[in-house]
Amino acid sequence: MPQSRIAIFPGSFDPPTLGHLDIIQRAAAMFDTLVVGLLDNPSKHPMLSTVDRVALLRKVAAPFGNVTVESYHGLLVDFARSRQASVIVRGIRGGADLDYERQMADTNRHMHPGLDTVLLTPSPAVAHISSTLVRQIANLGGSVRGLVPEAVEAALTARAHAGRTQQV
pTM of this prediction? Predict the structure, then answer.
């Protein structure tokens, strides 16, 4: 019986974007199981809590029966080992991403021989989207429609509305 191909798509997903969803959809078609691993990094100050990001990712990944969403702490290679994953999936938008991701892939493979990295370029319709830009737009009260899944848009709109209410 062939071994199950398990992949991890790691990130902070702050917030989850249509670019992330594009990579999730495509990676889910490539692997038997895709674990979306949300790094819970207490040194960062995310826009959305870990609990909220996990819940949103679970909602947008629900149509894919082979995708699970989990938060993790510590090294990605340790998380990959604990899930018996043999592949890390990363999205890259350009040359700078490629240089960084290659260095990370080589380092991860050094720490966990046999752990490969698959780099996916986003579909052209979502290649311009980044969580950083979405956060900036949302923090300045702009519309994020067409940049994030509807559930994420609703959460960001509610957050912005709550923030405006508190400022009054």
Answer: 0.92
